[in-house]
Amino acid sequence: MTGAGRRSPIGGAEGVGRGKARPGRGEMAAAATQGMEPLRVGFVGAGRMAEAIAQGFIRAGKVEAQHILASAPTDRNLCHFQALGCRTTHCNREVLQSCLLVFFATKPHVLPTVLAEVAPVVTAKHILVSVAAGVSLSTLEEEGAMVMARGRHAGSSEAKLLQTLLEACGQCEEVPEAHVDIHTGLSGSGVAFVCAFSEALAEGAIKMGMPGGLAHRIAAQTLLGTAKMLQQKGQHPAQLRTDVCTPGGTTIYGLHALEQGGLRAAAMSAVEAATSRARELSGK
Ligand SMILES: NC(=O)c1ccc[n+]([C@@H]2O[C@H](COP(=O)([O-])OP(=O)(O)OC[C@H]3O[C@@H](n4cnc5c(N)ncnc54)[C@H](OP(=O)(O)O)[C@@H]3O)[C@@H](O)[C@H]2O)c1
User: Fold this and answer.
1) pLDDT 10s digits, 93-115
2) Which of these, 127, 123, 111, lies nearest to 163 by C-alpha position?
3) How distant, in Å, are the alpha carbons of 237, 245, 267 from that of 261?
4) Which end of the chain is more exposed for a tag (fewer CB within 10 A), N or C?
């Protein structure tokens, strides 16, 4: 996951970090995998991102609801956690005191204050995860595609534990820190780019006389089917595109129109612009 608060005073980490002293490294991960003690997961900030991640863990049976503790200043969002069977508190420090794996899921501007507040109770055993602008809720809730980057103090057992958990919410890959903002441009913002393309496809059909509802349903299904084929066959998109192009047929005529409209250049520029903006926002 990418990191709001990625310059955390606690772990100096982006994505996943650790308290600074070293003893106890990997103990929790080992315990979790060996069934020695239940994994307790905390959320500081209990809004939409926190809830989506917690729901993913519970649904996948990775963490029991009663072992999740969430904090927020008001009950506005905590009531959703209570409805899931999780514990809640208004005290951020209590989350760190009860849980060794803690997700920070407040808005970025609140994070520095929150980190300063909890810093005295952070130990070397904590694994701290920041949730960032790169993952959209829709990707998290559905066919999730997440990346996580490790901070200086996070070891491979912590990264493995986090990856195993986050896979409950979708595909999760560990990447170098430099790829995190590119992921934001490709996947986080990509949802909107693909929606724009789906809308445009449907509007082409509407222009040709198809009813709107039907056109949008078929466009969405076409995107879904294509994505599934790409994933299942592990093919390069150019291969699939070539396979469906009969010489002199409809598809090559349509593709010619797309090339004339500059679709590829526009899509590449969109990812470039979104990545640059993500870098700007993260102060790089
Ligand atoms: N939503 C998305 O689609 C999305 C996508 C990508 C990234 N993100 C990132 O994820 C993070 C959280 O986003 P969100 O949409 O989940 O935000 P949100 O729904 O507004 O939730 C923010 C949570 O932080 C809590 N909070 C505020 N001040 C706090 C404090 N001092 N201590 C502890 N908790 C505090 C809020 O408390 P109350 O419940 O009392 O208001 C609320 O529960 C942000 O960094 C955002 O950039 C979100």
Assistant:
1) 999 999 999 999 998 788 889 98
2) 127
3) 19, 19, 11
4) C
Name residues whose C-beta falls within 8 Å of residue 102's C-beta, 6 or more positions apart in sequence: 41, 42, 43, 44, 95, 96, 126, 127, 128, 129
Integer-rounded Cα radius of gyration of the chain: 22
Site to probe by mutation for ligand 1, drawn from 82, 106, 118 as the one with most ligand atoms within 8 Å of Cβ, is 106
H/E stretch holding 162 reads: helix 156-166
Q: Which residues line ligand 1 (CB under 6 A)?
A: 4, 44-50, 71-74, 76-77, 92, 105-108, 110, 114, 131-133, 135-137
Residue 127, strand partner residues:
18, 101
Whose CA is closest to atom 45 on ligand 1? 107
CA 145 – CA 160 distance, rounded (Å): 17
pLDDT tens-digit series, residues 126-181: 888 888 654 455 544 455 567 777 777 777 787 888 888 887 777 777 878 788 88
End-to-end CA distance of the chain: 17
Rounded CA-CA distance 115/197 in Å is 40
Three-class HEC string of 40-95:
CEEEECCCHHHHHHHHHHHHCCCCCHHHEEEECCCHHHHHHHHHHCCEEECCHHHH
Contact 134, 1 (CB under 8 A): yes
Q: pTM for this one?
A: 0.67
